Amino acid sequence: MSLPFTSFNDVRPEVAAFESYEPGLSIAEIAEKYGLPRVIKMASNENPLGVSPAVRQALERSAGEAFRYPQSGNPRLVKALAALYGVDAGRIFVGNGSDEIIDLLFRVRAVPGVHNAVAFRPCFGLYPTQARMAGVELRQAPLKADFSFDFDALLHLVDENTTLVIVTSPDNPSGRAASPDELEALARALPPACLLVVDEAYIEFAGPEYSLLPRLERLPNVALMRTFSKVYALAGLRIGYAILPPAIADYMWRVRLPFSLNILAEEAAVAALADTEFRERTVELVRRGRARLTEELRAMGCEVPPSMSNFIMFRLPEGGVDAKTLHGELLRRGIIIRALGGYHLPQWLRVSVGTDEENELFLCFVREILGA
Ligand SMILES: *Cc1c(COP(=O)(O)O)cnc(C)c1O
Predict the structure, then answer these.
(1) Residue 1 has pLDDT above 60, yes or no
(2) Is the pTM of this model over 0.70?
(3) Neighbouring C-beta atoms of residue 313, cutoff 10 Å
(4) Is the bond preceding 191 in cis, omega lying within 30 degrees of 0?
(5) Distance from the CA of 169 to the center of ligand 1, in angstroms?
(6) How far is the CA of 16 from the centre of ligand 1 (A)?
(7) Do strands 116-121 and 311-315 pair parallel, antiparallel, or not at all (unpaired)?
(8) Does residue 314 register a pLDDT over 90?
(9) Which one, 69, 289, 343, 353, has the greatest CB density within 10 A?
(10) What is the number of the ligand 1 atom nearest to the C-alpha of 171?
Protein backbone atom coordinates (compact mmCIF):
# COMPACT_ATOMS: atom_id res chain seq x y z
CA MET A 1 0.00 0.00 0.00
CA SER A 2 1.42 3.40 -0.91
CA LEU A 3 1.14 6.13 1.68
CA PRO A 4 -0.29 9.48 0.61
CA PHE A 5 2.69 11.39 2.04
CA THR A 6 4.30 14.01 -0.19
CA SER A 7 6.21 16.11 2.35
CA PHE A 8 8.39 15.58 5.39
CA ASN A 9 5.78 17.59 7.28
CA ASP A 10 3.01 15.07 6.63
CA VAL A 11 1.68 13.06 9.56
CA ARG A 12 -0.74 10.16 10.05
CA PRO A 13 -4.34 11.27 9.39
CA GLU A 14 -5.27 10.47 13.02
CA VAL A 15 -2.58 12.92 14.12
CA ALA A 16 -3.52 15.62 11.59
CA ALA A 17 -7.06 15.69 13.01
CA PHE A 18 -5.86 16.28 16.59
CA GLU A 19 -6.54 19.40 18.58
CA SER A 20 -4.50 20.14 21.68
CA TYR A 21 -5.86 19.09 25.07
CA GLU A 22 -7.52 21.95 26.92
CA PRO A 23 -6.55 21.68 30.56
CA GLY A 24 -8.10 23.67 33.40
CA LEU A 25 -6.72 27.21 33.67
CA SER A 26 -3.60 27.56 35.78
CA ILE A 27 -3.28 29.53 38.99
CA ALA A 28 -0.26 31.50 37.71
CA GLU A 29 -2.12 32.52 34.54
CA ILE A 30 -5.13 33.90 36.42
CA ALA A 31 -3.08 35.55 39.18
CA GLU A 32 -1.13 37.48 36.56
CA LYS A 33 -4.08 38.34 34.33
CA TYR A 34 -6.17 39.87 37.13
CA GLY A 35 -3.32 40.97 39.42
CA LEU A 36 -4.53 38.78 42.27
CA PRO A 37 -2.42 37.81 45.29
CA ARG A 38 -4.33 34.57 45.86
CA VAL A 39 -6.03 32.29 43.38
CA ILE A 40 -7.98 29.17 44.33
CA LYS A 41 -8.18 26.35 41.83
CA MET A 42 -11.34 24.25 42.04
CA ALA A 43 -11.17 23.07 38.44
CA SER A 44 -9.26 19.80 38.17
CA ASN A 45 -10.56 17.68 41.06
CA GLU A 46 -7.24 17.74 42.86
CA ASN A 47 -7.00 16.97 46.55
CA PRO A 48 -7.68 20.20 48.53
CA LEU A 49 -5.37 19.06 51.36
CA GLY A 50 -2.28 19.13 49.13
CA VAL A 51 0.62 16.69 49.49
CA SER A 52 0.45 14.62 52.68
CA PRO A 53 3.36 15.14 55.11
CA ALA A 54 4.28 11.44 54.93
CA VAL A 55 4.55 11.61 51.14
CA ARG A 56 6.59 14.78 51.30
CA GLN A 57 9.03 13.04 53.65
CA ALA A 58 9.29 10.03 51.35
CA LEU A 59 10.03 12.32 48.41
CA GLU A 60 12.71 14.20 50.33
CA ARG A 61 14.23 10.95 51.55
CA SER A 62 14.46 9.50 48.05
CA ALA A 63 15.52 12.64 46.15
CA GLY A 64 19.08 11.31 46.06
CA GLU A 65 17.92 8.25 44.10
CA ALA A 66 16.86 10.35 41.12
CA PHE A 67 20.01 9.43 39.16
CA ARG A 68 18.92 5.76 39.09
CA TYR A 69 16.53 4.07 36.71
CA PRO A 70 13.44 2.78 38.48
CA GLN A 71 13.20 -0.94 39.08
CA SER A 72 11.57 -2.50 36.04
CA GLY A 73 7.96 -3.46 36.71
CA ASN A 74 7.70 -1.24 39.82
CA PRO A 75 7.53 -4.34 42.08
CA ARG A 76 7.37 -2.44 45.41
CA LEU A 77 4.33 -0.48 44.32
CA VAL A 78 2.66 -3.52 42.77
CA LYS A 79 3.17 -5.48 45.97
CA ALA A 80 1.83 -2.66 48.15
CA LEU A 81 -1.28 -2.31 45.96
CA ALA A 82 -1.87 -6.07 45.96
CA ALA A 83 -1.64 -6.14 49.76
CA LEU A 84 -3.86 -3.11 50.37
CA TYR A 85 -6.61 -4.13 47.95
CA GLY A 86 -6.37 -7.90 48.51
CA VAL A 87 -5.80 -8.87 44.89
CA ASP A 88 -3.22 -11.08 43.23
CA ALA A 89 -0.13 -9.09 42.19
CA GLY A 90 -0.38 -10.70 38.75
CA ARG A 91 -3.53 -8.67 38.10
CA ILE A 92 -1.97 -5.30 38.82
CA PHE A 93 -0.62 -2.86 36.28
CA VAL A 94 0.73 0.60 37.04
CA GLY A 95 1.34 3.43 34.61
CA ASN A 96 2.12 7.09 34.11
CA GLY A 97 -1.34 8.18 35.20
CA SER A 98 -4.60 6.53 34.14
CA ASP A 99 -3.92 8.39 30.92
CA GLU A 100 -1.19 5.92 29.98
CA ILE A 101 -3.38 2.97 30.96
CA ILE A 102 -6.28 4.18 28.81
CA ASP A 103 -3.92 4.68 25.89
CA LEU A 104 -2.44 1.19 26.26
CA LEU A 105 -5.82 -0.50 26.68
CA PHE A 106 -6.91 0.71 23.24
CA ARG A 107 -3.65 -0.36 21.67
CA VAL A 108 -3.54 -3.73 23.41
CA ARG A 109 -7.21 -4.70 23.14
CA ALA A 110 -8.29 -3.33 19.73
CA VAL A 111 -7.07 -3.95 16.19
CA PRO A 112 -7.14 -0.60 14.33
CA GLY A 113 -9.91 -0.40 11.75
CA VAL A 114 -11.42 -3.71 12.90
CA HIS A 115 -12.45 -3.51 16.54
CA ASN A 116 -14.49 -0.83 18.25
CA ALA A 117 -14.90 0.48 21.78
CA VAL A 118 -18.05 1.74 23.50
CA ALA A 119 -18.50 4.44 26.15
CA PHE A 120 -21.10 6.99 27.23
CA ARG A 121 -21.43 10.56 25.99
CA PRO A 122 -20.26 12.85 27.52
CA CYS A 123 -17.22 11.03 28.84
CA PHE A 124 -13.68 11.69 30.03
CA GLY A 125 -11.82 13.44 27.18
CA LEU A 126 -8.98 10.93 27.03
CA TYR A 127 -11.20 8.06 25.86
CA PRO A 128 -12.04 9.61 22.47
CA THR A 129 -8.58 11.07 21.90
CA GLN A 130 -6.66 7.88 22.63
CA ALA A 131 -9.17 5.76 20.70
CA ARG A 132 -8.61 8.03 17.72
CA MET A 133 -4.84 7.89 18.09
CA ALA A 134 -5.06 4.09 18.17
CA GLY A 135 -7.23 4.08 15.04
CA VAL A 136 -10.16 2.56 16.94
CA GLU A 137 -13.78 3.62 16.48
CA LEU A 138 -15.32 4.84 19.75
CA ARG A 139 -19.10 4.49 19.83
CA GLN A 140 -20.91 6.60 22.38
CA ALA A 141 -24.32 6.14 23.94
CA PRO A 142 -25.88 9.28 25.41
CA LEU A 143 -26.38 9.39 29.15
CA LYS A 144 -29.99 9.95 30.20
CA ALA A 145 -31.20 13.56 30.49
CA ASP A 146 -30.47 13.50 34.24
CA PHE A 147 -26.94 12.12 33.51
CA SER A 148 -27.76 8.67 34.86
CA PHE A 149 -26.43 5.64 32.99
CA ASP A 150 -28.43 4.20 30.09
CA PHE A 151 -26.99 0.68 30.04
CA ASP A 152 -29.54 -0.52 27.46
CA ALA A 153 -28.36 2.16 25.03
CA LEU A 154 -24.75 1.21 25.76
CA LEU A 155 -25.38 -2.48 25.12
CA HIS A 156 -27.17 -1.60 21.93
CA LEU A 157 -23.90 -0.29 20.47
CA VAL A 158 -21.94 -3.42 21.33
CA ASP A 159 -21.37 -5.92 18.53
CA GLU A 160 -19.06 -8.86 17.83
CA ASN A 161 -16.20 -6.43 17.09
CA THR A 162 -16.47 -4.56 20.39
CA THR A 163 -13.45 -5.39 22.52
CA LEU A 164 -13.68 -2.62 25.12
CA VAL A 165 -16.55 -1.02 27.00
CA ILE A 166 -15.56 1.82 29.33
CA VAL A 167 -17.78 3.14 32.11
CA THR A 168 -16.69 5.83 34.57
CA SER A 169 -18.17 5.44 38.05
CA PRO A 170 -18.48 7.81 39.78
CA ASP A 171 -18.80 9.61 36.48
CA ASN A 172 -17.03 12.74 35.35
CA PRO A 173 -18.45 15.39 34.98
CA SER A 174 -21.81 14.44 36.56
CA GLY A 175 -20.53 12.83 39.78
CA ARG A 176 -23.14 10.08 39.54
CA ALA A 177 -22.16 6.57 40.59
CA ALA A 178 -23.47 3.46 38.83
CA SER A 179 -25.05 0.69 40.87
CA PRO A 180 -22.63 -2.27 41.14
CA ASP A 181 -25.54 -4.62 40.41
CA GLU A 182 -26.16 -2.86 37.10
CA LEU A 183 -22.47 -2.93 36.25
CA GLU A 184 -22.38 -6.65 37.02
CA ALA A 185 -25.41 -7.22 34.78
CA LEU A 186 -23.66 -5.27 32.02
CA ALA A 187 -20.50 -7.36 32.39
CA ARG A 188 -22.54 -10.55 32.11
CA ALA A 189 -24.39 -9.34 29.03
CA LEU A 190 -21.23 -8.58 27.01
CA PRO A 191 -19.97 -10.90 24.27
CA PRO A 192 -17.00 -13.11 25.22
CA ALA A 193 -14.34 -11.01 23.45
CA CYS A 194 -15.33 -7.81 25.24
CA LEU A 195 -13.60 -6.40 28.33
CA LEU A 196 -15.57 -4.07 30.61
CA VAL A 197 -13.29 -1.37 32.03
CA VAL A 198 -14.71 0.55 34.97
CA ASP A 199 -12.80 3.78 35.55
CA GLU A 200 -12.94 4.11 39.34
CA ALA A 201 -10.81 7.26 39.56
CA TYR A 202 -13.20 8.72 42.16
CA ILE A 203 -14.42 5.54 43.86
CA GLU A 204 -13.00 6.40 47.30
CA PHE A 205 -15.37 9.37 47.53
CA ALA A 206 -18.38 7.15 46.86
CA GLY A 207 -17.34 4.32 49.17
CA PRO A 208 -16.16 0.72 48.76
CA GLU A 209 -19.75 -0.52 48.39
CA TYR A 210 -19.84 1.12 44.94
CA SER A 211 -16.74 -0.69 43.66
CA LEU A 212 -16.75 -3.86 41.60
CA LEU A 213 -13.56 -4.91 43.41
CA PRO A 214 -15.25 -7.48 45.69
CA ARG A 215 -16.95 -9.05 42.66
CA LEU A 216 -13.90 -9.36 40.40
CA GLU A 217 -13.39 -13.05 41.16
CA ARG A 218 -16.74 -13.89 39.63
CA LEU A 219 -16.50 -11.35 36.81
CA PRO A 220 -13.48 -12.44 34.76
CA ASN A 221 -14.18 -9.92 31.95
CA VAL A 222 -14.00 -6.83 34.19
CA ALA A 223 -11.03 -4.50 34.71
CA LEU A 224 -10.82 -1.63 37.18
CA MET A 225 -8.82 1.51 36.60
CA ARG A 226 -7.79 3.78 39.47
CA THR A 227 -5.46 6.69 40.11
CA PHE A 228 -3.22 8.38 42.66
CA SER A 229 -4.27 11.78 41.30
CA LYS A 230 -7.37 12.29 43.43
CA VAL A 231 -7.70 10.77 46.92
CA TYR A 232 -3.92 10.20 47.13
CA ALA A 233 -3.17 13.83 46.16
CA LEU A 234 -0.45 13.04 43.62
CA ALA A 235 -1.84 14.41 40.32
CA GLY A 236 1.48 16.04 39.44
CA LEU A 237 3.51 12.84 39.79
CA ARG A 238 1.33 10.89 37.31
CA ILE A 239 0.50 7.48 38.78
CA GLY A 240 -2.41 5.28 37.77
CA TYR A 241 -3.09 1.60 38.35
CA ALA A 242 -5.40 -1.04 37.01
CA ILE A 243 -6.63 -4.39 38.24
CA LEU A 244 -6.86 -6.50 35.11
CA PRO A 245 -7.45 -10.07 33.99
CA PRO A 246 -3.98 -11.62 34.57
CA ALA A 247 -3.32 -12.30 30.87
CA ILE A 248 -4.08 -8.67 29.93
CA ALA A 249 -1.94 -7.38 32.80
CA ASP A 250 0.93 -9.46 31.47
CA TYR A 251 0.62 -8.05 27.94
CA MET A 252 0.29 -4.50 29.25
CA TRP A 253 3.57 -4.91 31.13
CA ARG A 254 5.29 -6.25 28.03
CA VAL A 255 4.39 -3.25 25.88
CA ARG A 256 4.59 -0.46 28.47
CA LEU A 257 7.61 1.82 28.10
CA PRO A 258 9.97 0.25 30.65
CA PHE A 259 10.39 3.27 32.95
CA SER A 260 7.17 5.18 32.45
CA LEU A 261 6.57 5.37 36.20
CA ASN A 262 9.51 7.29 37.61
CA ILE A 263 11.43 6.44 40.75
CA LEU A 264 10.14 9.35 42.87
CA ALA A 265 6.57 8.69 41.82
CA GLU A 266 6.92 5.09 42.94
CA GLU A 267 8.31 6.14 46.34
CA ALA A 268 5.52 8.68 46.80
CA ALA A 269 2.86 6.15 45.82
CA VAL A 270 4.11 3.53 48.28
CA ALA A 271 4.15 6.14 51.06
CA ALA A 272 0.67 7.37 50.11
CA LEU A 273 -0.79 3.85 50.30
CA ALA A 274 0.45 3.55 53.87
CA ASP A 275 -1.01 6.92 54.88
CA THR A 276 -4.47 5.77 55.87
CA GLU A 277 -5.10 8.77 58.09
CA PHE A 278 -4.61 11.27 55.24
CA ARG A 279 -6.90 9.28 52.97
CA GLU A 280 -9.64 9.15 55.58
CA ARG A 281 -9.29 12.84 56.29
CA THR A 282 -9.60 13.58 52.57
CA VAL A 283 -12.76 11.53 52.15
CA GLU A 284 -14.35 13.10 55.22
CA LEU A 285 -13.53 16.63 54.04
CA VAL A 286 -14.82 15.93 50.53
CA ARG A 287 -18.08 14.38 51.70
CA ARG A 288 -18.78 17.27 54.04
CA GLY A 289 -17.86 19.83 51.36
CA ARG A 290 -19.91 18.32 48.58
CA ALA A 291 -23.00 18.12 50.81
CA ARG A 292 -22.57 21.77 51.68
CA LEU A 293 -21.96 22.90 48.08
CA THR A 294 -24.89 20.85 46.78
CA GLU A 295 -27.28 22.16 49.40
CA GLU A 296 -26.27 25.80 49.02
CA LEU A 297 -26.29 25.80 45.21
CA ARG A 298 -29.70 24.14 45.21
CA ALA A 299 -30.92 26.78 47.63
CA MET A 300 -29.85 29.39 45.03
CA GLY A 301 -32.03 27.62 42.45
CA CYS A 302 -29.26 25.67 40.70
CA GLU A 303 -29.75 22.19 39.31
CA VAL A 304 -27.20 19.82 40.87
CA PRO A 305 -27.08 16.10 40.07
CA PRO A 306 -26.31 14.08 43.21
CA SER A 307 -22.51 13.68 43.31
CA MET A 308 -20.67 10.73 44.78
CA SER A 309 -17.36 12.26 43.79
CA ASN A 310 -14.99 15.08 44.83
CA PHE A 311 -16.66 17.62 42.53
CA ILE A 312 -20.16 18.69 41.69
CA MET A 313 -21.72 19.74 38.42
CA PHE A 314 -24.35 22.46 38.38
CA ARG A 315 -26.58 24.53 36.12
CA LEU A 316 -27.70 28.02 37.02
CA PRO A 317 -31.39 28.93 37.27
CA GLU A 318 -32.80 30.11 33.96
CA GLY A 319 -33.31 33.76 33.13
CA GLY A 320 -30.42 35.11 35.16
CA VAL A 321 -26.64 35.11 34.91
CA ASP A 322 -25.38 32.47 32.46
CA ALA A 323 -22.62 29.89 32.96
CA LYS A 324 -20.03 31.77 30.95
CA THR A 325 -20.59 34.97 32.92
CA LEU A 326 -20.39 33.22 36.28
CA HIS A 327 -17.21 31.45 35.22
CA GLY A 328 -15.59 34.74 34.16
CA GLU A 329 -16.75 36.65 37.23
CA LEU A 330 -15.34 33.95 39.51
CA LEU A 331 -12.02 34.14 37.67
CA ARG A 332 -11.87 37.89 38.27
CA ARG A 333 -12.34 37.16 41.98
CA GLY A 334 -9.61 34.51 41.95
CA ILE A 335 -11.58 31.26 41.79
CA ILE A 336 -11.07 28.86 38.91
CA ILE A 337 -13.82 26.34 38.22
CA ARG A 338 -14.38 24.25 35.11
CA ALA A 339 -16.58 25.33 32.24
CA LEU A 340 -17.95 22.26 30.48
CA GLY A 341 -18.01 23.45 26.88
CA GLY A 342 -15.39 20.80 26.14
CA TYR A 343 -17.97 18.20 27.22
CA HIS A 344 -20.57 19.91 25.00
CA LEU A 345 -22.43 21.07 28.10
CA PRO A 346 -22.16 24.86 27.73
CA GLN A 347 -24.85 25.55 30.34
CA TRP A 348 -23.12 23.49 32.99
CA LEU A 349 -20.19 24.14 35.30
CA ARG A 350 -18.14 21.84 37.48
CA VAL A 351 -16.56 22.79 40.77
CA SER A 352 -14.12 20.63 42.71
CA VAL A 353 -14.72 20.39 46.43
CA GLY A 354 -12.16 22.53 48.24
CA THR A 355 -11.27 23.06 51.88
CA ASP A 356 -14.15 24.34 54.05
CA GLU A 357 -12.79 27.86 53.67
CA GLU A 358 -12.47 27.61 49.89
CA ASN A 359 -16.01 26.24 49.59
CA GLU A 360 -17.43 29.11 51.64
CA LEU A 361 -15.56 31.70 49.60
CA PHE A 362 -16.82 30.13 46.39
CA LEU A 363 -20.42 30.13 47.66
CA CYS A 364 -20.10 33.69 48.85
CA PHE A 365 -18.89 34.88 45.42
CA VAL A 366 -21.57 32.90 43.58
CA ARG A 367 -24.26 34.49 45.76
CA GLU A 368 -22.79 37.91 45.07
CA ILE A 369 -22.60 37.36 41.29
CA LEU A 370 -26.12 35.93 41.08
CA GLY A 371 -27.41 38.74 43.28
CA ALA A 372 -29.01 36.04 45.43
C1 LIG B 1 -8.97 12.47 36.97
C2 LIG B 1 -9.43 11.28 36.19
C3 LIG B 1 -8.58 10.19 35.98
C4 LIG B 1 -7.17 10.19 36.48
O5 LIG B 1 -6.27 10.39 35.45
P6 LIG B 1 -4.71 10.39 35.77
O7 LIG B 1 -4.09 10.26 34.41
O8 LIG B 1 -4.45 9.18 36.62
O9 LIG B 1 -4.38 11.66 36.47
C10 LIG B 1 -9.07 9.10 35.31
N11 LIG B 1 -10.33 9.05 34.84
C12 LIG B 1 -11.17 10.08 35.02
C13 LIG B 1 -12.54 9.99 34.50
C14 LIG B 1 -10.74 11.23 35.68
O15 LIG B 1 -11.57 12.27 35.83
Answers:
(1) no
(2) yes
(3) 25
(4) no
(5) 11
(6) 25
(7) unpaired
(8) yes
(9) 353
(10) 13
